Amino acid sequence: MRRTTMTQFKTLDDADVTGKRVLLRVDLNVPIKDGEVGDRTRIERILPTIREIADKGGRVILLAHFGRPKGQPNPEMSLEPLAPVLSQMLGTPVGFADDCIGPVAAGIVAALKDGNVVLLENTRFHAGEEKNDEEFASQLASLGDIFVNDAFSAAHRAHASTEGLARHLPSYAGRTMQAELEALEKGLGNPERPVVAVVGGAKVSTKIDLLSNLVTRVDALVIGGGMANTFLAAQGIDVGKSLCEHDLADTARAILDAAKTAGCEIVLPVDAVVAGEFKAGAANETVAVGAVPADAMILDAGPKTVDLVSGWLDKAKTLVWNGPLGAFEIEPFDAATMAAARHAARRTKAGDLVSVAGGGDTVAALNQAGVADDFTYVSTAGGAFLEWMEGKPLPGVEVLKA
Ligand SMILES: Nc1ncnc2c1ncn2[C@@H]1O[C@H](COP(=O)(O)OP(=O)(O)O)[C@@H](O)[C@H]1O
Ligand SMILES: O=C(OP(=O)(O)O)[C@H](O)COP(=O)(O)O
């Protein structure tokens, strides 16, 4: 189906971290529910790298983004609440600096002792992060002696803390970065057909372009969640107030054409659970996709769609899944995602399916269904995982090879 040769970058095995200031890029873009961290998988996965560096006497300076604050400080997207969570999970104090560059960051880094850990504020509070600005990258670089990237799930972004920084400092892959690439290669390097991809979720504009390539690599593509609404609308179906990117209608139609050319079956919802508000327990009804009321929004796939998806999961030998089929965080709109997760898990346990799923919310959904351990592999990455599958070079990985 793809792919690159295995890892040609340096790892922590090659790094001398003792007494060094180690800028460690991690992905703390975790689901937050009622002000609390929901699913902790992304944090759990970075603990071994943090511990290894700290145990070897390195000074760990954590860099991460949260949400999409568009280059401006935004208290709602502060990483500060993550510091006590990290501290509790690591079993060691984790300091916090409320800026990732400048005197505040420099001061807290200068005070670090060997084995200490500090978290710096959201890198995306500076416009230079997403622009991969040289000056911003060099300001980050001035805080460290070496750079370790353990954020595979952000490796598809050519940002200052995922890509630019690696051109300023000696750079290494962290243990999670290494493990993700090895596991994906093992699970999907040479997949058994039919390969069925399921793509849902809410990040429509950033993921839709990937689909035109994905359809050339898989036998069927199930489109669900918010992503499906854009495709339904592109076919002239009224989706009411649903999450939908109407200006991507042409892109959606081009993907449908590309799928036809490639012989990839596209599976779209045939029915939907709709509600007037995005709220747990909101009054809802199940309707055919052609009958969504103008003042309602699609929040889940309906039972006929669930049957359709199950049928494709039965045909599949390999499943690649990113993005939930509905707003699974709020009941009862979790039904389709839970049903598909459990169905795929059953087939995997029976030895009939290789199932690889990824994405912050997708992992949370699998944990909510209680089946994450039954999947062949669960990646922390969503968009990066899909881009890896397409064979697209990931900037955050490529720069480590340079
Ligand atoms: N029909 C829908 N309407 C609104 N939001 C949806 C819908 N279906 C799924 N979602 C939302 O998609 C989000 C996950 O999307 P995304 O970030 O793309 O996935 P991942 O993090 O797994 O890559 C969830 O918060 C979920 O509530
Ligand atoms: O959560 C992430 O991606 P994902 O939702 O595709 O898994 C990563 O942290 C990247 O975030 P971004 O899509 O805002 O660049």
Report on the structure:
By secondary structure, this protein is of the alpha/beta class. It is built from 14 helices and 17 strands. The strands form four sheets. A six-stranded parallel sheet has the order 5-6-4-1-7-8, with helices on both faces. Strands 11-10-9-15-16-17 form a six-stranded parallel sheet, with helices on both faces. Strands 13-12-14 form a three-stranded antiparallel sheet. It is globular. It starts with 20 loop residues before the first strand and ends with a helix. Bound molecules: adenosine-5'-diphosphate (ADP) and 1,3-bisphosphoglyceric acid (X15). Adenosine-5'-diphosphate is lined by residues 200-203, 225-226, 243, 298-299, 322-324, 326-327, 329, 359-362, 382.
